[in-house]
Backbone:
């Protein structure tokens, strides 16, 4: 006999809604808050990470000019979209190199000792 069982509830949400939620949650995570105050936050490209970067940029007043539309590492494209031989899009001009918070020129020196990987 199983005592005190509670029904399991499932909630279905669109992926974009959940990615927004992840972005908002990570923005207030203690490790992220500490890094924002005392170091550098580096966000690797990825569709979910685009939402994280968008939320952090908004929180730090650096949202202007940032777009998560091209902030991904891989992409699945529908059949028939033209690509080159390696399977990449022909026009890559809209892709950004991002470093730190927002889009900035890539640093050539070694990272600060205060930098933290999250």
Residues:
């Amino acid at each position: 006999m199983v005592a005190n069982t509670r029904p399991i509830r499932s909630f279905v949400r669109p992926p974009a809604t959940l990615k927004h939620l992840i972005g908002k949650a990570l923005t207030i995570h203690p490790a992220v808050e500490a890094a924002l105050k005392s170091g550098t936050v580096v966000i690797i490209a990825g569709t979910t990470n685009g939402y994280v970067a968008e939320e952090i940029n908004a929180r730090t007043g650096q949202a202007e000019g940032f777009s998560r539309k091209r902030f991904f590492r891989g992409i699945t494209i529908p059949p028939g979209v033209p690509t080159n031989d390696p399977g990449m899009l022909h026009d890559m001009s809209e892709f950004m190199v991002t470093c730190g918070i927002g889009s900035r020129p890539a640093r050539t020196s070694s990272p600060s000792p205060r930098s933290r990987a999250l």
Residues 97-118 have pLDDT under 50 and may be disordered.
